[in-house]
């Protein structure tokens, strides 16, 4: 009789656990649907409920962290990703996601550590190399960053961000021809990204193709009238071409944006 009672108690216990997990899964699935609809605040509420029922779900913490990251709450995201990793330390996507959040928090060393781990767990994921390249760029390890962008583009040859960021690193190490090629490839994939025109303009200026460079900088300025670097670059080339009127107009634009220059102040007055 006692044995039978114990068996019944065990059966009721496991039925209760199954019911709990089933309810937690229901809220987690609702959260996922919210994510697909970009309803990130609602998603967080549903993941809160799932976690309150089953606090051992690495996926619930992972997905709640992703929702927080999409709301630009990277500190909150890191906390959730860390809890997910404590439960399951073998999921490369969580290390990648936490690395990305660390990157946006400007904690580049921790970002680098997580991206290294993500790559060790899954060396075939292009985005991990891409963000590791960003981190190495922040540490001015430009050649290492180029190697990471090379790998990212080997895995994902249509990644416009990979090309434009490799172009920036190539500029920094003096690989101007490669920088121009990468900028043009980036523009072919994503013509709306003005960084491609800006980098291409810089390279054209290096090769003294001033008029063509000015055309690229003008595209950047037309799309972003407050792009101080493009305005400054165009002004410098206008001076090279002895176009004083245009150079002074660009200097006036710079002044309105809060930038001043002693030489140009004298030159234009």
From TrEMBL:
Keywords: Repeat, Signal, TPR repeat. SUPFAM superfamilies: HCP-like. TPR repeats lie at residues 24-57, 92-125, 126-159, 194-227. PANTHER family: TETRATRICOPEPTIDE REPEAT PROTEIN 6 (PTHR44858), UDP-N-ACETYLGLUCOSAMINE--PEPTIDE N-ACETYLGLUCOSAMINYLTRANSFERASE SPINDLY-RELATED (PTHR44858:SF1). Residues 1-19 form the signal peptide. It holds the Pfam family TPR_1. This is Tetratricopeptide repeat protein. It comes from the Bacteria.
């Amino acid at each position: 009789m006692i044995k039978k009672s114990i068996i019944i108690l065990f059966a009721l216990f496991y039925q209760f656990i199954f019911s709990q997990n089933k309810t937690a899964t229901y809220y987690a699935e609702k959260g996922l649907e919210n994510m697909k609809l970009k309803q990130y605040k609602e998603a967080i509420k549903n993941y809160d409920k799932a976690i309150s029922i089953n606090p051992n779900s690495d996926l619930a913490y992972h997905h709640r962290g992703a929702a927080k990251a999409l709301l630009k709450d990277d500190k909150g995201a890191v906390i959730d990703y860390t809890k997910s990793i404590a439960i399951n330390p073998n999921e490369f996507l969580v290390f990648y996601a936490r690395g990305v959040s660390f990157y946006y928090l400007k904690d580049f060393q921790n970002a680098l550590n997580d991206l290294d781990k993500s790559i060790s767990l899954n060396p075939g994921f292009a985005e991990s190399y891409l963000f590791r390249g960003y981190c190495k760029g922040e540490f001015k390890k430009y050649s290492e960053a180029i190697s990471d962008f090379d790998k990212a583009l080997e895995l994902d040859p249509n990644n416009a961000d990979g090309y434009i960021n490799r172009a920036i690193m190539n500029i920094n190490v003096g690989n101007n021809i490669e920088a121009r090629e990468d900028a043009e490839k980036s523009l072919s994939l994503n013509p709306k990204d003005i960084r491609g025109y800006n980098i291409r303009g810089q390279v054209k200026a290096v090769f003294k193709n001033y008029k063509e460079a000015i055309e690229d900088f003008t595209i950047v300025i037309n799309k972003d009238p407050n792009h101080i670097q493009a305005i400054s670059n165009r002004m410098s080339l206008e001076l090279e071409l002895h176009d004083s009127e245009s150079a002074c107009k660009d200097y006036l634009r710079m002044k309105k944006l809060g930038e001043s220059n002693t030489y140009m102040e004298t030159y234009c007055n």
